[in-house]
Amino acid sequence: MPAAPDCHWMSDLCDALMLLDGEGTVHRWSDGAEFMFGYTGAEAVDASMDELVVIQDRRDEQRRFIADTLLRGHDTFETLRRRKDGTLIYVDITGKVVNPSTTPTEQRLLFSEKDVTSLKVERDSKTLEARFRELLESTPDGIVIVNPTGHILIANSQAERLFAYGPGEMRATVVERLLPERFRAAHKGHRAHYFAQPRTRSMGAGLELYGLRKDGTEFPVEISLSPIRTEETPLVMSAIRDVSERKLFEQALREKNIELEKANLAKDRFLASMSHELRTPLNAVIGFTGTLLMKLPGDLNDEQTHQLEIVRSNAMHLLSLINDLLHLAKIEAGKIELNREPTDCCTLLNEVAASLEPQALAKGLALIVDVPPGRVVVDTDRRALNQILLNLANNAIKFTAAGHVRLELLAHESGARRGIQFAVEDTGPGMSEDEQAALFGAFVQGQAAKHKGVEGTGLGLHLSRKLAELLGGQLNCHSIPDQGSRFVLSLWEASP
Amino acid sequence: MSARILIAEDHPASLELMSYLLRAHGYDILPAENGEIALALAHSERPDLILCDLQMPAKTGFEVAEAVKSDPRTKDIPLIAVTAFSMLGDREKVLAAGFDDYFSKPIDATCFVRDLEQHLPPSLLATRLPRATRNGT
């Protein structure tokens, strides 16, 4: 019979035998020791037990055991040892002094070590079953409790269902069996690391983790770990949750999102081409009305001129409607990009007044600009602010038959920030409370507009308020019938 | 001698409108109903100015601009986009594509010709005034 198999056959039955000196240096190393720990005699002899099989935090324990053995002549002890491949095993040690001496290097001790891992797992498992079974069955998650050698001591029935094992089948198996092959090696490392620094945490937060069922299929899991301190052995409890459904849901959500983005793009394209398609015929209508009114093709009588003016003004109205609707659609879609820059409000208000002065003059209205001395600078989108103020001032002039339109700029301190208010006040017809309440809705016009046939799209104030909100401000109206209206736009000055 | 102006425009009413306005002021017109014809005319006729729609069959205005502005024989001809694309950012897009100016539709008949003439040297300005102006009305 060849020697090697014979040796293994023997080793399987034999305990590990080793001869040590008082400092823990190995002097003899049996085949059984080689089989149990993975180190050959050549590797082990003259090496220290500490470097070979003693776990870092159990070195004092090992020294104490040697001392006790030396003192009494013999002793027994159970501990955790590390094999060459890094895995841990429980061993039962019998130590015996074979050469007492006062010089540690002269001392000789014979250690006989027996692998009791399965026995220990069996024993700890029974203790835990008795203590925790009912408690574990009451939680909705799958739970396994694992010891430092990586063996499952207890698994509740939820865990058995998750991994498709029969009752009791998971007990005493190595926990890596619950992982797909590709994760096993890394997991052993994580496990050792965790026992060194146990704390409650979720495992591989942010990583994609998978469980492996008994039938070889995988499923996505979420795991949280908590250390359990028993009298002698540190244990880890893992709560495992099958997140297949959530993953499916997230996937569906991602797909839905992509779909929505596509739909949004399609809407943008639709808006752009609608704008184009509506403007193209209007170009001919407005253009040729213009050539006729310019009398390029020939003279016109008064009635023809009057009717062409009506065509032109209605075509221009249609154009404003298209512009406002597109603008509104862009605001609603959040497509307006604000370009904030330091803007001097006094200058801006003066510019608005200057551009509307001819209209005010034509109606015999006084256009008053009231700004504080110096510069009042806000960090805002100039175009949007300009559009709001033009709309308000234009409305005021449009609806006021006599009196004045006043454009005011007010600055006031409020805490750390300075508030800015633009007020546009007129001596026009004013509005009832009902009218004011509905004023900022789309396609709403006050009584004055309806009765006097004043032109407007009914979108101006609606747009202005939306823009004001985009700028982080507010647009409000105070009005008294037959006395006039005051529109106030409130903004915040740039923080220093 | 007044300028010869190439108009690339597939919408017949818009083409007629611009042609009419320019002829009324005394300019010669080279009409082109799509981008391809416009490019051919730009090469064979060497107009003094090109008005160009953007969305056209055969070749778009952007393709016309690329061809015109990359060819040393035509790159100095003023090229103006006249387009109904007037969403925010369209003007910048057009100027970035090589056009010398951007007119949005609907055009304003009262200032269209005057704006266009900014791109013509004085020697090529039309001497004929439109009838209405000539009559002093």
Short overview:
By secondary structure, chain A is of the alpha+beta class. Chain A has helices at 3-13, 31-37, 41-44, 49-52, 59-72, 117-137, 157-163, 181-196, 244-293, 302-332, 345-362, 382-399, 433-438, 447-452, 460-470, and strands at 16-20, 26-29, 74-82, 88-99, 108-115, 142-146, 152-155, 201-202, 209-212, 218-229, 234-242, 340-344, 366-370, 377-381, 404-414, 417-426, 474-480, 484-492. In chain A, strands 6, 7, 8, 9, 10 and 11 form a six-stranded antiparallel beta sheet that branches. A five-stranded antiparallel beta sheet of chain A has the order 2-1-5-4-3, with helices on both faces.
Provide structural commentary:
The complex is a heterodimer of chains A (496) and B (137). Chain A is of the alpha+beta class and 496 residues long. Chain A has helices at 3-13, 31-37, 41-44, 49-52, 59-72, 117-137, 157-163, 181-196, 244-293, 302-332, 345-362, 382-399, 433-438, 447-452, 460-470, and strands at residues 16-20, 26-29, 74-82, 88-99, 108-115, 142-146, 152-155, 201-202, 209-212, 218-229, 234-242, 340-344, 366-370, 377-381, 404-414, 417-426, 474-480, 484-492. Chain A folds into 4 domains: 3-115, PAS domain (Beta-Lactamase); 120-242, Beta-Lactamase (2-Layer Sandwich), CATH 3.30.450.20; 248-332; 340-492, Histidine kinase-like ATPase, C-terminal domain (Heat Shock Protein 90), CATH 3.30.565. Chain A has 15 helices and 18 strands. In chain B, strands 2-1-3-4-5 form a 5-stranded parallel β-sheet, with helices on both faces. Chain B is an alpha/beta fold. Chain B has one domain (4-120): Rossmann fold (3-Layer(aba) Sandwich). Classes of the chains: A alpha+beta (496), B alpha/beta (137). Chain A binds chain B through residues 271-272, 275-277, 279-291, 293-296, 298-299, 315, 319, 326, 330, 336-337, and chain B through 11, 13-14, 16-18, 20-21, 24, 55, 83-88, 104-110, 112, 130-132, 135, 137.
